[in-house]
Amino acid sequence: MDEQNRIRVGYIGLGGRGQGMLQILLQMSDVTVTAVCDRYEDRALEGKRLVEASGRPSPFCTQNHLEVVSRNDVDCIFTPSSWTSHSTVMIAAMKAGKPVATEVGGAASVQECWDLVHTALETGVPCMMMENCCYNREEMALLNMVRQNVFGELVHCQGGYEHDLRSEVARGIEQRHYRFQHYAHRNGDIYPTHALGPIAKLLNINRGNRFVSLASFSSKARGIHEWAVENLGPDHRAAKTEYLQGDVVTTILKCARGETVVLTHDTTLPRPYSRGLRVQGTKGIFLEDNYSVYLEGRSPRLDAWDSFKDYIDEFDHPLWKKSDVANFHEGHGGMDYLIWRAFIEPLQANLKELPIDVYDVATWMAVTPLSEASIAQGGQPVAFPDFTNGLWTNREPAPQHLYSL
Question: Over the stretch 333-358, which tens digit does the pLDDT of each residue have?
C-alpha cells in the first residue's frame, strides 16, 4: 500500500456503534487508526485494544476530543459519539483542517445546523454524514431506477425509522446510552436520516430541489413505560419516568418542485424492523414492506404487484456488482463497508466534495428540531431553512465518481 494514500483516522466515540464500525474499518489495508477517544475511559481503552488486536500500531488514547483533532498524525476524523456531541466534534475538526464524518442523528437546534454550514464554508473543509442506508443495495437500485426514469416523474416518497427499541431505551441509564434522556425530554422525529437520506438523494434535494415546509404530529407516549413495568419492574427508573417522546411521530415535508414526503418515527411499540420506504411516480411505485413494485406498461399483470426480486439484478448499482463489495456482508449487509469507502476514497483522490456534503448534513439533521417545533405548535407547518442560501437552484452537478449519489 502506498503510504501517501494511506488515510490516518482519528476516532471519537466508542460505544456499541463506534466499536462495530471500528472493527470494519480495521479490516481495510489503506487505513490506519492513529488516535481513539471516548469520554468514558473504559470505552477509549477498548478502542485502543481493538486497534492493537488487529495488528496495527497502538493508537494515541484520550478522553478529550480536542487532543485528537489537533494531532499531526491524524488526516481525518470520524465521530460515532452521542447525538448532541456530533456538531461539537465536527466543528472542532473542520477548524483544525481535518475532513470529518459523523454518525447519523438529528440536531438539537436549527442554529446548530447553520453553525455547521458556516464553519464548512469558512474553513473550506468538508464534512459528511455516514448515512449507511444511502448505500444499501435496494436504495441504490432504486436510485438507479429513478435516474433512468423507470418511475417517471417522482410525486411522493415515504419512509421512516420503525424499530422496536423499548429494551435499549429503557435500559439506557445502566448501559450509558444517550437515547434515554432524549426520549424523556424531547418529542419529535429524533432519528430521521435513515429514510430521509436516500429519499433526499432521489429527489435531488439541495441540487435543483429543496424542502420548503414541514409539519409533524405525535401520538401519546405509552410504549416504554409499559415495557419497563412488565420487564424491569414498577420501581425501575424507566418505569417511573414520564416520557415526552410520542410512540409514533409522523412528519410531512413539502418540496419546492411539488413532491411530498412522509416520515415516520416508530420505535417504542412492538413491531418488526422496517424503514417503510415508498417511491411513487407517474409511471410506477415501489413498496419496501411487501418488497414489491408496479410499473405501468411493464408489470405483466394489470393492477397486481411484482416482486422487486425480479428487478433488482437488472438495476443493481455498480457498487453492488463489485466483488469486493458484493462479498462483504458485515455491518448491515455491507452498507457499513460502503459508507466507509464513500468517505475514504474521495479523500484519497483529493476530491473537494464528498458524496454527502454539509448541506445534506444540515438539512437532514434539521428535521429533528423543526419537527419538535411543529409538534409543540399543535402540528402547525414550519418553514424549512434553505441552508444553501439559494444555491440549490443552480448548483453544479455532484462530482462523478464511484460513490456519487
Answer: 789 999 999 999 999 999 889 999 99
